[in-house]
Specification:
single chain; binds s-citryldethia Coenzyme A
Length: 427
């Protein structure tokens, strides 16, 4: 018998098995707790709750460690590609040369959208937020791909996973083109996944578009940094939606909706807007005081994390990538100096030190994406594009788990106890 966790409740003693993973905190298996004690656990925000078993991504928040199938994010960002990392997340191992070539060819040949979907865009206002368009168009994919929504069929799951990974760049680029009134640019199968995305976004029919290798590499690395991140809010949304048997397109649309929030994936857009509002370094102390003020809802966007209580390893890579992009484009941005100074002042302030609030993946990404030419409204779209592989990998892992069941949390009820209806003339 392994270690047991002991609980005394209602005058009785109970024991629950402690389960061990390959690394990280053990878990107390409380699946029988309600049946045995008649009590629920209470954990709003799931700060102490493991919702599932997973072999995809491991995060050590205290050490600032992020592993995808065991490989450190810093090594993948430096040595891998987004397509190779996507294969790794989906299949569990790094691909051979032939496996990678086959995977890339498969994804490449799913990049086109059904032509009817182009019409779908025209139903939106030109100034619609691209995330609103993404939610709508990705959800609508289930109306076009009936041939791959039988989630019990591994082949259907594989095809719909490939379709989602392949079509997100096309959908994202089309959302941008629609917002600026330019014609949609069709995929070019001779380009890499990321090069094709850059061309669909910034290319125009009137002239050839040349992919800048340094920008292609930086963008690809940014996609790697956003690929997956354990059971974050949007991934948990995808898992919960998928647990009902909903089709993968609808589940990913739900994940996109959740990612949009400023506390989550919307933080990259919010962080750049915050830096623009701060403007010059001399105004930073005022904003740091606001962030510390309990009566002020203002927070330093791009700072803090539920899991990382040390530096987010993705932010480290993001900062070095920023310098590479500035060098490649021979540009600079005064907001970068403001961001560096904000980080320096915040990390020397006891409030941020005691609460272990460090820059996260969203703090620098906006400055890079802005330098490459994306408007702030596209930042979370890019996050969703990259996170799609993580969402589909997590969804596949859940659906193929034989013990999988619908997610259905309970509650602590604090409303009125039973009472009888009162006729209106007696109220
Ligand atoms: C992402 O989960 C993931 O893995 C997400 C993600 C992924 O890859 O999927 O990593 C992507 O979402 C990154 C996080 C992006 N969000 C932001 O940058 C928004 C700003 N950050 C905060 O909103 C906040 O830090 C969260 C939402 C990220 C985390 O919130 P928690 O874990 O619920 O922590 P908390 O709100 O309880 O904060 C702890 C304390 C609080 O003070 P007290 O109530 O204890 O006095 O720290 C304070 C908070 O007020 N605090 C901040 C702060 N973040 C937390 N104070 C000022 N500025 C901040 N940014």
């Amino acid at each position: 018998m392994g270690d047991q966790a002991k609980l005394s409740a209602g005058g009785a003693d109970f024991e629950y098995p402690i389960l061990k993973g390959s690394v990280g905190p053990d878990v107390v298996d409380i699946r029988k707790l309600y049946a045995q004690t008649g009590k629920f656990t209470f954990d709003p925000g799931f700060t102490s709750t493991a919702s599932c078993e997973s072999a995809l991504t491991y995060i050590d928040g205290d050490e600032g460690v992020l592993l995808h199938r065991g490989y450190p994010i810093g090594q993948l960002a430096e040595k891998s590609s987004f397509m190779e990392t996507s294969y790794l997340l989906l299949n569990g191992e790094l691909p051979s040369k032939d496996e990678l070539t086959t995977f890339e060819n498969t994804i490449t040949r799913h990049t086109m959208l059904h032509e009817q979907l182009a019409t779908f865009y025209r139903g939106f206002r030109r100034d619609a937020h691209p995330m609103a368009i993404m939610c709508g168009v990705v959800g609508a994919l289930s109306a076009f791909y009936h041939d791959s929504t039988d989630i019990a069929d591994p082949e259907h799951r594989k095809i719909s996973s490939h379709r989602l990974i392949a079509k997100m760049p096309t959908i994202a680029a089309m959302a941008y083109k629609y917002s600026v009134g330019q014609p949609f640019v069709y995929p070019d199968n001779s380009l890499s996944y990321t090069g094709n995305f850059l061309r669909m976004t910034f290319g125009v029919p009137a002239e050839e578009y040349e992919v800048i290798p340094a920008i292609e590499k930086a963008m690809d690395r940014i996609f790697i940094l956003h690929a997956d991140h354990e059971q974050n809010a949007s991934t948990s949304t995808v898992r919960l939606a998928g647990s009902s048997g909903a089709n993968p397109f609808a589940c990913i649309a739900a994940g996109i909706a959740c990612l949009w929030g400023p506390a989550h994936g919307g933080a990259n857009e919010a962080a750049l807007n915050m830096l623009k509002e701060i403007g010059t370094p001399d105004r930073i102390p005022h904003y740091i005081e606001r962030a510390k003020d309990k009566n002020d809802p203002f927070r330093l966007m791009g700072f803090g994390h539920r899991v990382y209580k040390n530096y987010d390893p993705r932010a480290t890579v993001m900062q070095s990538t920023l310098r590479e992009v500035f060098d490649a484009l021979k540009v600079t941005d005064p907001l970068f100096e403001t961001a560096l100074r904000l980080e320096e002042l915040a990390l020397s302030d006891p409030y941020f030190v005691e609460k272990k609030l460090f820059p996260n993946v969203d703090f620098y990404s906006g400055i890079i994406l802005s330098a490459i030419g994306f408007p702030t409204t596209m930042f979370t779209v890019l996050f969703a594009l990259a996170r799609t592989v993580g969402w589909v990998a997590q969804w596949n892992e859940m659906i193929s788990d034989p013990g999988q069941k619908i997610g259905r949390p309970r509650q602590l009820y604090t409303g009125p106890t039973q009472r009888d209806y009162l006729a209106i003339d007696k109220r």
